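Q: How do we represent a protein-ligand complex in a form that can be generated token by token?
A: Start from the inputs.
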Amino acid sequence: MITYDEKNQLFHIQTKNTSYCFGFYQGKFLMHYYWGKRLNGPFAVEDFYDFERSGGSMSTSDYEDQYASRDVLPGEFSTFGNTDLRTPAFHVQYPDGSRITELSYESHRIFAGKKPLEGLPATYVEDDSEATSLEVTLADSLTGLKVVLSYTAFEEADAITRSVRVENAGQDTVRLKSVLSALLDFKTADYDMVHLPGSWARERHIERQPLFSGKQIVDSVRGASSGQHNPFFALVSHGATEETGEAYGFSLVYSGNFTAGAEVDAFGKARAFIGINPFDFEYVLEAGMSFQSPEAVLVYSDSGLGKMSRIYHRLYRTRLCRGRFRDMERYVLINNWEATYFNFNEEKIVSIAEKASQVGVELLVLDDGWFGKRNDDTSSLGDWKVNLEKLPGGLNSLVEKVNALGMKFGLWFEPEMVSPDSDCYRAHEDWCIHVKDRIRSQGRHQLMLDLSREDVCEYVLESVSAVLNSADIEYVKWDCNRSMSNIGSAKLDARHQGEFCHRYILGLYRVLEELNRRFPNVLFESCSSGGARFDPGMLYYMPQTWCSDDSDAVERALIQCGTSLCYPYSSMGAHVSAVPNHQVGRVTPIAARGAVAMQGQFGYELDLNRLSDSDIEQVKEQIRFYKKYGEVFHKGDLYRLQLPQDGPVATNEFVSEDKNTVIVVRFVLKATPDPGPDFVRLCGLDEKAVYTEEGTGRQIGGDVLMNAGISLMPKADYMTQIRVFHKNA
Ligand code: DGJ
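Then emit the structure tokens for the protein with DGJ bound:
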């Protein structure tokens, strides 16, 4: 529900458990009043701010109240060019060189449902009753620039989205320098910032630090959301745990350069913000043009990080992901990458498929190396024609053989790239990201195609489509193995070069949108050197992302736990790979690798022909278990009972949507001799119900499981224990 209190000039956005309030000071500038637990009582807005002016702050002299210094007022969408000298949400340069924007209220409208964002991924509704939206139009009277702030309250889902559209209704061209998607001020800075830094093969580890005076920012200038930082952070009350304390989540539905963080001012108040990174960003807005910011998704929880995550999980799984595969249990797959790398032929792939089909695997993915002359990573990206030396019968012959085994076939692409050693590059040297006469730095011997160009997007679209039309391909792994550097486009004139990174992402989104339209029956999985582009933007086009190139069970437990702060397990590609692990050399039992991987979108990344008979029996059992319970991992509620970064044990509990099935997966990262029993209390059960444990037939009260807890000891393999409970009818 969204209401407007005219007398107080106050907007009140309510979801099931949350209130978010902002309004206008003297009809002029926007102030943020409140975000937190749902409020129902009447407001006296004067109590939401304090005009006591400190010695250092400046008044806003054009307003009657000399004490109304914006530097101490809580902002909702602060613009540059006034006495609020903290991080602005909006920074524009006008033709006369000035950068001052004074936005005042023009109009607003409240409506049922939610509008899509033009050219950008966003959450959506299936029925207008699911959400209410608000658009507040602000205008700069001097220049005619309009800013439309959009808010949506997902009532049941308990989340609020924000985005911004800038419309140049004036006569002159303006240059946008910063348009953040969300900014708001808290009344204190008594929070910890939780975020997800990482690197290749160790993406999204949880980091938590108390806020300090000044700015603390996580960001990306890599042209992608990146594995170094994720476009997500949370501010949590000191001492907040998984199930207690307050948590405020900020997530950006965008796959390019972003900034996210907080600024703690001299008065001990925190300003939080998230949006496109203003660094190296500029957008030229001619008269009549508009600019749409990405969407920020804000989630408040009064019960710790766990509840915040569960809200994000449900929203992103059901109202961000789209298409045929959104609600489907997806295929158990086998991928040949770590089994063969580039060294394969048809016979080898068919032998991997044969063994996989015998244990219940449903889809074979042929990874890198099937096209052009690619026998290592130095050539052929851009030449999306099958390599007939490796696959003499073409893709079709291989696909038919895989299909004859009762399996589906999937294929790897890296469509955004071009190898200097490729026919594509030789024919179109200006198609890559570059600046004339400057070095074209390579990453993994490759350059990036310039997706800000229509003709290059068209090439990508048509070359991928041609392959997908050439055979029965039912899955695509869409890889992207380098960051952007040496940025420039041969097609953009000097005035528009600053738009490049954003235009690239818009081009990518256009291509992905069209591919989804053309191939609704193909399951797309996003990948980027593992999980370097794991963000909500990509999930809109591809409902799962390869979480990391690191499938070592111990490292994966950390990566998946961090990822789960914002993203559901249903979105995480997770495979069992060979030991010693190819990234860290660690040897873990197959049961441990299986237990960690089967929480995500499950698969294998090894040659099953090389496993012992007893391991193969375990593989069969893992697939049987996963086929039966995958839905609980993916659609159920996640409770992170023990966090891997806190100690040697990671325990996740999943409660099915209907609350009837409970799965507890305990994984020991570091074995301790004679550790003794470890009690964990389960969460989210029906306290009045009785549960039966699968396997033992033990009857245990829901209240017992939740209050007395259960003792968990690793069983057969010293590392893993999986327990399943069913609620008695
Ligand atoms: C990086 C991916 O993350 C891997 O899974 C694999 O597909 C390689 N690229 C292939 O080059």
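The pocket of DGJ is lined by residues 337, 367-368, 412, 479, 481, 527, 529-530, 546, 549 (CB under 6 Å). The two ends are 37 Å apart (CA to CA).
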